[in-house]
Each structure stands twice: as C-alpha cells, then as structure tokens.
Amino acid sequence: MVQWLPKGSAFRAAVRQENRITDVEERLMDIPEALTGKPHPIRKQAHDAQRAKQRAPAADRVRQRMAARAKRYGNK
Predict the structure, then answer these.
(1) What pLDDT tens digit does each residue of the chain (76 aa) get?
(2) Could you tell me how far CA 24 lies from the centroid of its own chain?
(3) What is the SS3 string spanning 18-75?
C-alpha cells in the first residue's frame, strides 16, 4: 500500500519503520561521499540505528537465557 508513496513521505517512513530521508537529501549526501570515499555521517547513523533495531530481539533472547541460566545454577 505504501510502496507508491514518495520515499520522503512521513507516513511511509512510519509504516515501514525507516528513516525519513528524501531523494534530494540522498543526492546531497552522495556529494561528500563521492569526494571523501566515506559514508556520510547521517547515512552511517541511520544504518547503525537500523542495525541496532534489528539486533535488539536477539540480544534480549541472549539476556533472558543468561538470566535463566544464572537463576538455575546460582550466581557464581
């Protein structure tokens, strides 16, 4: 349903849980990336935030397992 909305649309960003970056902003970030060969700080920050959000459930499961193991065997 939201695939036809423009990329910078606030509604699309909220539904897809993605950052609201317009095409113009993306093109503006491409300039320093091309000149320096490094990712733009905003793009890197958005990538890191998305990755952390994807990894959060796995980290929670690990914490739960460790807590259950500590409870079962006692805190040593």
Answers:
(1) 667 776 667 777 777 777 667 777 778 888 888 999 888 888 888 888 889 988 999 999 999 999 999 988 886 5
(2) 20
(3) CCCCCHHHHHHHHHHHHHHCCCCHHHHHHHHHHHHHHHHHHHHHHHHHHHHHHHHHCC
Q: Collapsing DSSP states into helix, strand and coil, what is residue 52? A: helix
DSSP-derived secondary structure letter, 30: H
pTM for the model = 0.47
Residue 38 has phi, psi (to 5 degrees) of: -115, 155
Reported as type and span, the H/E element at residue 40 is none
The number of helices, as runs of H, and strands, as runs of E, in the chain is 3, 0
